[in-house]
Amino acid sequence: MNDEILESYREAGRVASRILREGAAMVRVEASLLEVVEAVESRVREEGAGLAFPLNLSLNEDAAHDTATPGDTRTFRKGDMVKLDLGVQMDGYIADTAATVDLGDHPLLVEASREALEAAIGRVRPGVTTGELGAVIQQEIEGRGYRPVANLTGHGLDRYRIHAPPTIPNIAIQGGAVLQEGMAFAIEPFASTGTGMVSDAPRIQIFQQIAEKPVRLAAAREILARVKDRNGLPFARRWLDGSRVEIGLATLVRAAVLHAYPVLHDRPGSLVSQAEHTLIVTADGALVTTR
């Protein structure tokens, strides 16, 4: 972690923090989901940064991995619990941050994930284990009467990698990785009124290239050419044009060239909140890049 890399992380964090606040302010009853997503992603580009992944905008029991479809007609409704998860990269160095907008009346649920995040950040220093962070997160969420989502975690960050070691659990575990100075990672607690376990929904709008293999189908080759400049970072279905996009995506997923990210959801009718910051471990604590 030299000074140049650190500054890239910090600049990505400054951009992400500012634009996440702008995006959250756009979320209101009857506003267009597609318009919010496109406006936020456009603002990242206007700032001279890149998107580390498509803006995740997940509603209610959906915890993660949803985003707008091409021509999406959905609007926000009264009562929605809206999660905005934004990734920004500068020269491949990533800031990952998220916030929840409550269009209903569940302030304690929003508080649960937010305060769990702050409590975990307060424990970060060299020598602490990720299991200790998970214990703090679980305590804060359960103390407010909700369940932490046990099968979602925070994650390490590396250049053009959004999921690197270490894994940061949202529940107490024995041991775990030992934090070291210079580590970069995102802590992202999820609090749920449901089961505290998420599963795959049928909806898939986000993909990531994970391998390079020859493919015969022209539509598949066109997709790979279109996403080459992503350097392996995720992309959205709506970023692609053409009449044969669906068959091209399906072919690449079957060939294990692309990884598909299904929407992750708790039980129908439940609500999930999320909070997230990116931080770098320092000699005596943490530098939060996305404040």
Task: Explain what you see.
There is one protein chain. By secondary structure, this protein is α+β, with helices and mostly antiparallel strands. The chain folds into 2 domains: 219 residues, Creatine Amidinohydrolase (Alpha-Beta Complex); 63 residues, Orthogonal Bundle (Arc Repressor Mutant, subunit A), CATH 1.10.10.10. The strands form 4 sheets. A 5-stranded antiparallel sheet has the order 7-6-8-14-15. The longest helix has 24 residues. The two termini are 20 Å apart.
Helical residue percent band: 25-40%
SSE order = HHEEEEHHEEEEEEHEHEEEE
Strand order of the largest sheet: 7-6-8-14-15
Shape, per Cα inertia axes? globular
Extended strand count: 15
Q: Determine the mean pLDDT.
A: 97
Measured distance between first and last alpha carbons? 20 Å
Number of helices: 6
Assign the CATH topology of the largest domain: Creatine Amidinohydrolase
How many domains make up the 3D coordinates? 2
CATH class of the largest domain: Alpha Beta
The protein's oligomeric status is single chain
Tell me which CATH architecture of the largest domain applies here: Alpha-Beta Complex
Strand content: 25-35%
* Radius of gyration, in angstroms, nearest whole number: 18 Å
CATH superfamily of the largest domain: Creatinase/methionine aminopeptidase superfamily
Structural category: alpha+beta
Largest sheet: 5 strands, antiparallel
Low-confidence stretches: none
